[in-house]
Amino acid sequence: MHDTHHHKPSRLYLLLGAFFVTNAILAEFVGAKIFSLESTLGVAPLQLRTFIDDPLDLNLTAGVLLWPFVFVMTDIVNEYYGTKGVRRLSFLAIGMIVYAFAAVYAIMQLEPAGWWRTKTLADGSTIDMERSFDAIFGQGLWIIGGSIIAFLVGQMLDVWVFQWLKRRTGERWIWLRATGSTVASQLIDSFVVLWIAFGLGGSWSASMIVSVALVNYAYKFVAALAMTPVVYAVHGAIERYLGRELAAKMRAAALRGE
Question: How far apart are CA 126 and CA 111, in angstroms?
């Protein structure tokens, strides 16, 4: 007869890992879409004045909608599986992202079927499906590289800040270590990805990178605060699933780095 108590941590890690990796890959692919937060909410453009010439509106990559969930999963995994658990998932996610982009790049080389290439829409207009497919999925190597490096740096910083705060607060103040580690890691993530993708790989000036990164980070900061109830809800569900005794043992082992 299987020991259900023994298998619970493995099942939980598998579930958290699947959600973690899936959201990381999705965030990379939907990041090709830039959306207007003001238009989505039905409000006037912000026209924020910064230290660059042109005023900034809240135009964000769609990927930022999913990254807060990735960082929440990072904190949850860190709580019960420690640094090693997060590191395994981070490298797994990076490997799967690289694999996904390589697979898409190979698929882009396939010759499209003649009847599929052009699609007629309901309004009578036509679109080139092949060009649209390549434009959406064929992100530049600098963007891919910048995103992966920023993700890895952000994850490692998130883990370190989380454990540093936990050693000083113990089991108290879940919100502090979860939110604190997230806002710190996403600050670095916001700047690194833009600097590599559009600074080294593009023609953006330093002021443009800093200005856009600050707008992106402002959203991530607000999202991190808004996700605090989610952290508590997930934490409570895990405690009930594992049981107090097992959960306490896992948290203690995670803090010791076992």
Answer: 19
